[in-house]
Amino acid sequence: MTSTPAESPLALTRRARRIGRLLTETHPDAHCELDHGNPLQLAVATILSAQCTDKRVNEVTPKLFARYRTAADYAGADRAELEELIRPTGFFRNKTNSLIGLGEALVARYDGEVPGRLTDLITLPGFGRKTANVILGNAFDVPGITVDTHFQRLVRRWGLTGETDPVKIEHAIGALFPKREWTMLSHRVIFHGRRVCHARKPACGACTLAKICPSYGEGPTEPEVAVKLLKGPRAGELAAAVGLDPALVPSAAATADVP
Ligand code: SF4
Fold first, then answer.
1. Displacement of CA 166 from its chain's centroid (Å)
2. Mutate which of 160, 215, 228 to test ligand 1's pocket (most atoms within 8 Å of Cβ)?
3. Is 168 a catalytic residue?
4. Whole-model pTM over 0.85
5. For a substitution probing ligand 1, which of 25, 150, 207 has the most ligand atoms within 8 Å of its CB?
6. Could you point out which of 94, 131, 154, 177 has its C-alpha 20 to 30 Å from the C-alpha of 85?
7. 148 is annotated as an active-site residue
8. Angle at 56 between CA 114 and CA 148, to 5 degrees
9. pLDDT tens digits along 228-250
10. What is the mean pLDDT of the chain?
């Protein structure tokens, strides 16, 4: 889905903000789903989340964070022990390299602290722009747009941008919303992507955005089919929000592992 050529920039902005308001109503619980207590823990959890569900990362991090408390702890980690602790998150050898490299870089260049600037964050091992924006938005209160796979898919489905490059998407969407909204917008879009607007089989017939979404129909539109595609602990409330009986949501939806 690409933006309609006839749509003026003003009309596009208005439509984007309407989508933003609907997402705010739909996902009042939106937040960073990686458990963390400080910037270092969030940096570590974000590295572990590559190719892994946040739920799985959250199962691993309590033990990890209890064992490794500082950047110096990661820098001096016993590789085999660290690999074993993070093994359930997949790609554990690469992730171990990133975590040790992160610890070393923080100790060598930033006094062991995670820096609060994009230009510094993107130089750290295991960090890309996406990771950096997660840290900025959630650990430093600096507004940032997190262009992950869900964000990319949804903004294209909504026709908010035709860009495919994540940095261009970040700038295109950033121009449509006030800066102070960027972090929460990212969470809400990602929540919608995980719980409603799935990559395959989006729940169009049970979606609060159905009336204004140009991609309505990309997934099942029959309410009784779509309602079964809703996921997450609030799946029943998501169904009720579009006038469907929450009892139609399968009980497994609440605990489904959202990718
Ligand atoms: S109507 Fe369908 S494609 Fe559009 S946001 Fe909802 S689930 Fe996604």
1. 13
2. 215
3. no
4. yes
5. 207
6. 131
7. yes
8. 60
9. 999 999 999 999 999 999 999 99
10. 95
- The backbone torsions φ and ψ at residue 128, rounded to the nearest 5 degrees and listed phi first, read -115, -175
Residue 249 CB–ligand 1 contact under 6 Å: no
Tokens 């820096």 found at: 115
- Tell me the CA–centroid distance for residue 217 and ligand 1, in Å: 8
Q: Tell me which residue of 212, 154, 181 sits closest to 19, measured CA to CA.
A: 212
216 lines ligand 1 (CB under 6 A): yes
Nearest CA to ligand 1 atom 2: 204
